[in-house]
Fold Serine/threonine protein phosphatase.
Amino acid sequence: MKIKNQKKPIVSLLLVFLLGCGPSRPSSIIGMETPSTNWEQDKSPYIISNWAFSEIPPGNFFHGHFPVLPGQDSGSPSSQNTHKNHSQSREAREADYGIEPFLATPSDISNYNPKRKDSSLVFFHSVKRSKNDLDILLSAYIPFCPSGCYLGVKSEGKEQMIVPGESEDSSKPRIVVIPFQNEEVTLALQLFPFNGPRNMMENPVVGSFSEIQTVYLVKALRVLLFSSLEFFSFFFFAFIYIRRPQDKFNLSFALLNLSLAIWYPAYEGWFQYIVDSPWTWVIFGYSLGAFLPILFYEFTIGIFQAPRNVPGRILQFLFVLLTIWPSLEYGITGGHQYFGKIAFHIFLVILVFFYMNTLYIFFRYRWSSILSFRWVVTGLILVAVSSFYTVMSFAGFGSAQPWVNESFLGLTLLFSLALAKRYAEVFRALEKSEGKLKSLNESLETKVEERTKIIEFQKAELVQKGRILAKDLSIAGKIQNALLPRELPVIPNARISYRYKPMMEIGGDLLDVIYDPSTSSLGMFIGDVTGHGVSAALLASMLKMTLGDWSILLQDPSSLLLHIRNQFEGKLDGHFITATLVTIDLRSGKTLIANAGHPECLVLRKGGVVEFYRPKGVAIYEAIPTTYQTESVDLSPGDKVVLYTDGIPDSRNTEGEFFGEDRLSDLLRKNSFRPPEELCDSVIHGVQSFQGEFQNQDDMALLVLEYLG
């Protein structure tokens, strides 16, 4: 190309940082010629960056006349008619606006302030070619222009031409065919009125139709490729977050990729093919672009496990305001005048502080990074630099295309590699653990086999011993049953019955009845040895032998208890015995009661009244010397004497509640009319019903006598 881009002074960039000001307007050039390009096929296509710029009054110039070109000689044959008919219009325009044409670039005109908001901005550029190339159909690639634009073409002998397909304003990137086969054509690019910054996202490209098609497809495929990869990254990291919701940074990174996948095609103008409306660019180009730093910050603090500091919260709040501003202003005013002049430059300044805060997080929390610090920081710095460069390009600084999406793809790759490295380390640790576990399992299997053999041997030995023990217990049970009264004495004026239910096959409860016909005296004895099983049964057997023929002591029950204590001196081995002894003179009904720490003796009167008797006396224990007292009570015909062991009142139900002496007395009272045999059955059945499934808690013994008079 013949005309090169003008370079912006470095001072303009510094002003953006310090004051939020945009670049200055290029100096005007009086009497200049329209910039031109000598088109050659072997050097095609051409990026047209330098144009002659002018501002025209309201109205679509394509619907009137092709404007007089800046610097055009009014005396030239090609312009005499134009100058003659419209010189007054041109003079009026320049008088109203005071505008002199100057060199400008369509992609860098956003800071130019038009004289009127409803005027159009027009760029002129001529394309020249040799006669040998006239058979080649020229075309132009028109980039995305948010305000909407037309492309007009003027050729020799033609005053004006509306290019087919350009009859309506459009903002989308597109291909425009140049419908002239002349050696020189002049392109007129018109940007339509817009209340805010007006520019093209990049400079137009001129070349053959096939070349422009290639340019168009490359740009479209580039956007499609990056958006597709970012959509894929969104689904990938969203899936990882669903599997590991504790890693919040995966969600932030997924949303960041989703936002970029939407923002990038909107920023490049390709969303206009879906909805050709300024709202598409406002929402997804401006608002969503201002929201990206918020997601970037969330991802950063998530990776470094950093708290939300005060500067970060303030910056997030400001970015939220800048996210809302473009859509709100466009919805109210229909333009972006204030956003372009004020908010956008504020956004640049805030972005500087945002990256400073990000660098602080990198340095302050570098040792707490969840993933590889080197890889993650490299990607984050790459994104930070490219994001800032993108914003500067968006503001008109720099001629190259923004590469924020490429940097984010780099971050995604580095982040994925770091994540893969993390999982690889976890998998290696798991494999190592599995190896150790396998070795331990093999060792354990060997030990289990050895132990199993030992257990089987011990089990067989225990089964054998169990059989022997069961046989011994059976014999012991038979022996103990032999200690119980086989046949109760038949007495004319008394009826006796008892029940005995050991907890195991053998127990420690003992009861006995003796009758002396010579004195008409009846003795009732009930005892309880602490413990259960064999030891208690052996002591109960010894107690039975100690009683012997105790008829000689029927007249003095307390002496019999003292005799038992003396016989067990040094033989109890920590056990103790409770007992109750009752003697009854069947001729008179006089009854003597002695107690050694045993539950009360109950006298159930014929009318249902229950009386409790417990003379003073402690349990038989070799370490406690004691004496026993005797208490006397008179029986009437129909009265009953009830002796029992503590297994009856101490029985519990499934809720842990005790049966107790109150329930026992109520049960006796309700069944006082029954004979001893039935009364015993009623008491045992009542206790078992109360226990429910919680059976066989202790040995139970019950002895009942009814005095007939």
User: Anything to note?
Assistant: The CA atoms of residues 286 and 309 lie 26 Å apart. The chain has three domains: 10-210, 217-423, 486-707. Residues 1-31, 68-97 have pLDDT under 50 and may be disordered.
